[in-house]
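Crash report, auto-generated. Payload:
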Amino acid sequence: MDINAATKNLKQIIEQLQVLNSIHTALSMTIKIEDIYSIILSALISHQGLGFTRSFLFLYNPKRDVFEGRYALGPETEEEAKQLIEEQNKEDDYLNDILKNFETEQNAKSEFSKDNIDKLYSNLRSSAVWIASVQNHGFDNALTRKLNEFAFRANPQEDKNENFINVLLNEKQAMRFNLEKDAHLFQKECGEIFDTNIIAVPLKAKKKIKGIIIADKKFSNSELTYLDLKNLDWFASHSSLAIENSELFNDLENMFNELKEVEKLKNNFLSIISHELRTPLTSVLGFVELIINGKVGAITNQQKELLKRVSKNTMHLIHMVNDLIQLGELEAEGIMDVKLSPVDPLNTLFSVIPRLEQRKRSRKVDVELVFTEAPPKILTDEKSLEKIYYHLLDNALKFSPENDKVLVIFKKMKNELTITIEDHGIGIPKEKLQKIFESFYQVDSSLSRSYEGLGVGLAISRLLLTSTNGQIEVQSEVGEGSKFSLKYPIAE
Ligand code: ADP
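Recovered output after restart:
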């Protein structure tokens, strides 16, 4: 081979490598499995791609344990092949013209006119006629219909009749076959569709064979070469990667949808349970109150004391059920009737503290207010602020050591008021600080945990804050305590 021919050959190989690279990019950007298969088949036979004339895809069907003929791309007859080659040549010429024009115009330092670009796009159906033909006609062509009639047993051990698929699966790489020499490996009808010389290669994903590609150069003067074999091998491994990515993406999407479904079921379940529980609990409380108040006859003091405990615990249950209902509503539709108006943060706090008496007493912890000037009014929703105060103070008291103090510190900064609820209790590990605002999350979620609670107070507070002008921040050190800071705009 002279030096000129060698250089030309090398140039061709480099060009082909560039083409392969762009096919690889196209494959890695595609997620839909059907699109991946069309890129694979088009790339094989594209004039600018791997240079085969026809490509065929067999896909594994696990239900039948066979490889089924699925898609075929390329000319079916000599006539069609000629026509397509003519179209390709026309497009090549056209491209060359445009490029020449472009160079001359560039040399003349004039801008490449918009007209020319428009012409380029309107006349250039596609650099590869084949791709255009996939887009125009899909795989519903005579060749595909013929291929659909083929199915090959997929399990080499069980199948006594040798066929090319078994040989290929044992070798696990691209192989050349000659339908005359290897006639015993092919069904008779194969000769009607494939060329005498073909290359076949398996497609793998997640270590399983997903399909088989066959390519030939029928109706062309070129032979299948060793380079073709290597190219197809390379191409199949990249295609396999694209198929695997697509399957992973599908798995992820399915998992995500299942999770959404489970989340919906959980919410429905909670909402039904909570509503169903509230009615009987309310009536239990009502009847117990009637008895305590002597409305249905006299009771002894001991009976009264015991019934008071029943009443207290029923009340506690009702509060929990109400929290669950509220969380469900907030997560589903957000806060319903927000009334933003100037709210006195101190008065609101005073209205909440009596409800925490029980907790304060059981922990022997007091609440102390800290401010240097009277806290200004803030623009928010009073009912929501009450609930937020309640949940934050309840936690601060619950997680405080006995005989301690919880501080509520008011600090005015420019147009903002910061209200910090500070305790000196068990604290929260840094990596859990964001999680504690998720519904049902508890740092200690074991059944043997020493603190009661449903894990919804902070989730409710955060959801309420988002629609009532507020923000929340948390700082905490394990063993030293926690500070939950609320920030609200000051009402003008
Ligand atoms: P609950 O207190 O009912 O478990 P919350 O949503 O109010 O639910 O709080 C979630 C979790 O955040 C608590 O279980 C606890 O682990 C942690 N936590 C909240 N506030 C404090 C606090 N002041 N000190 C320590 N841990 C806290």
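Post-recovery validation: The pocket of adenosine-5'-diphosphate is lined by residues 391, 395-396, 399, 423, 425-428, 436, 441-444, 453-459, 482 (CB under 6 Å).
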